[in-house]
Amino acid sequence: MIEETILKQVDERKQQIVDTLCELIAIPTANPPGQSYKQCVQYLSKMLQAWEIEHRTIPVPNKDNNRFSLIGSYGNGNQGLHFHGHYDVVPGNSPDQFHPHIENGCLYGRGSADMKSGIVAMLFAIRIIKEMGINLGGKLTFSLVPDEETGGRLGIEYLFKSGYLPPPSTSLLGMLMPEPSSGLVWNASKGALSCRIRIKGKFAHVALAHDGENAFEHMVTLANDFLELKKKIDSRKTNLPVDPPGTNRSVMLIGGDTGSGFNFNTVPENAFFTIDRRFNPEEKLDEVKQEIFQILDEHRKKGINIETDVFQEAESSISGTNTMAAEALKQSFRAVTGKEPVFILCPGVCETRYFSKLGVPSYGYGPGLLEHAHSANEFVALDSVFDCTKIYALTALKLLTPR
Prior knowledge:
Helix content is 34%, strand content 26%. The protein is an alpha+beta fold.
């Protein structure tokens, strides 16, 4: 059977998968600032070229470090399945994290879980299907982007705004993203609104404080009103299953980044603080914005000079658990693990939202444990990488092969 051959092909390529993953982790694509992006994309492009998989590089000019995305495809047909991943990683806790090592069946290194192992699994799934000469009757497309860890504006957002995504002339039946989902399937994700609020006052020496306007005091007054709103937000819980259980609440983090003034004996003329709002699918982005901006407008009416910089804005998303893509994923999951997949809400923000917004059933499922994704001891169990490679290939087979 084709399915059994696919599973065997993955097993025969285990060492190739591990070697490729180690080489990819060794490229320090830390974001911020966004380093080694070109090196990483060149490595992936050279590999895809050797595999004779159609692809192209999309450059995005940036004043500090240029950004590069990879898009590609295999197969033909109007319907398709899309694989999407990000190759940027959070900064390492030490340079040693970019020197991967294997211990007790686990591969340690920055990006091992989030999400270079998932990228390698998806690409090897495509390679195996291609080399087996399987006629999918549809198209497997993929995109690999930077900047997910900082909001995705120069990564996936650029590809959507520029018309590269969704893939032109391809009707997507589903989308998969290999986030480290701890063995669960994320069919929904939270939304986000992150902003920096700046308050402007008037400088004065402490001896002439009456001539100044204290931006810090204005900030405290403003922050107190947001604390009152936070009490209401803390009581909001989703009805969707989520893990861990405490992540069922809506979140408003106030003051994650904050500052004021420059000396103890001068009236601070500037102050700032951040608000990071994470909301469940039961809430809408427009409603979240209105709650925050209403408070800001009330303080502006009192004469306070306030500027707002929104640096992350994302709708929540949800996809059904009985779509064709979900059923193909379920069948593949059972075939490889012998277990029934569990669909839950992602406790964070996921780039599946871009596809889900267009009505494409979108799911996050990948190797690794979420709790270790950004840790100083990040790792991935290699067996989970091999299992995911099998599941991705089988999902494409079940969803796209002619019936």
